[in-house]
Amino acid sequence: MDDLKKNQLKILIKCCICIGCSIGMVSNCIGLFYTPIAQALGTGRGQIAAISTIISLSSAFSAQIVARLIKKIPINLVMGCGSTIVVLGFIALSFARQLPVFYAIAVFMGAGDICFKSLTISMVLRSWYGEKSGSKLGIAMALSGIVAAIMNPILGRIIEGYGYAMAFRLLALLIGVLAIPTCFSIRLNESDQNAAAAKKKSENAEKTVVPFIILAILTTLPVAISGATGMNTHFSSFAISLGYTLSFGATLVSFQSIFNSVWKLVFGFIADRLGYVRTSVGYLAMNIAACLIMVFFSGSKIAIIAGTCIYAAAFSLNTVGLPILIQGVAKERFAEIFANATMVQTIFYALFTTLFGTISDKAGSYIPCLMMVIVFSAIGMVMFAVVGKKTHTA
């Protein structure tokens, strides 16, 4: 193995660690804390789910700032400082006892989280792997699900045995040990020539005309996808609402994380054979089936687990399906359109996360939320089909 391949492998491992900590431990584990914190503060799950919403919104609006910082400051400093903020945030959360304090901490955590998440990791992998960076990002994203699958049962048991504060401190310790030194050691490939090619593409992007209806759908499709996947962080609370234990809820999150990774890896292989539009429509159809299973067979643990595993497929559309769709129908304007779509998706996913928590509080059940997921999944299927028909793609 030559020096370049060794360095590429080292960078890939480091990127997997960063994604594992930022997405696997922050984004995919925060849902476990909704019910315990709500019970401790004597408030509703919707108000606690707003913590996740604030983190997501803060990340979305901080992305532009981070993008500018990277041009002036070495990327490892940006990532290292961001991971440090997240660690300090988890420590602060473990001592917080008032809702406004939780919200204030979430703002800073969101700004720190985006620093060592998909935005910077994509840039790092692109600089080292060029056109082959997409598959490497897929590997990192899949591993984030495995990390979440391992961590959720552990955190669930710690919350039950020692309280949510101790679980927050464990996350701070793990991210501090794993992410901080890794982030500070990451670097871009100085000999990379892809930046010049990207600049040339951006200069030609304005010359490419995308039909208005396609542009409108690509910009609004993330709203439907967000509605279809808004239950993602609520599965532990969903289990508790059905009368199951927090440990079973954590098990659901683990199954969801594992199959989230599996479906992401499988998506590309299916899309190569059936086309990305058909594959996306199929994934949303699976989402509808999953919700129906959980609505009509909620008394069966096996059915709930099966529904959770199937539901995990739709979440692949955020990280795999949507990028592939935009790349296929608006390649020259990919960066611009995908940036807008990502912003819309982040904002609406955060809003749906809070909305579903609030609805479950008012209704005393997650059934209305699952029905909303079915509606948005159906809307997403129509949107994908229209794009496929208008662009003559499968």
Q: What form results from the Cα inertia axes?
A: globular
Strand content: under 5%
- What structural class is derived from the secondary structure elements? mainly alpha
* Oligomeric nature of the chains: single chain
> Taking all residues together, what is the mean pLDDT?
83
Radius of gyration (CA) equals 20 Å
Identify the CATH architecture of the largest domain.
Up-down Bundle
> What separation lies between the terminal Cα atoms?
39 Å
The CATH class of the largest domain turns out to be Mainly Alpha
- SSE run: HHHHHHHHHHHHHHHHH
CATH superfamily heading of the largest domain: MFS general substrate transporter like domains
Work out the count of structural domains: 2
Low-confidence stretches are none
Under CATH, the topology of the largest domain can be stated as Growth Hormone, Chain: A
Largest sheet: none
Helical fraction: over 70%
Count of helical regions: 17
Write the layout of secondary structure elements.
Elements: H1 3-27, H2 34-41, H3 45-72, H4 75-95, H5 99-113, H6 118-129, H7 133-162, H8 164-185, H9 194-205, H10 212-229, H11 235-241, H12 246-274, H13 276-296, H14 301-311, H15 316-329, H16 334-363, H17 367-391
Helix pairs in contact: 1-6, 1-7, 1-8, 2-3, 3-5, 3-16, 4-5, 4-8, 6-7, 7-8, 7-12, 10-15, 10-16, 10-17, 11-12, 12-13, 12-14, 12-15, 13-14, 13-15, 13-17, 15-16
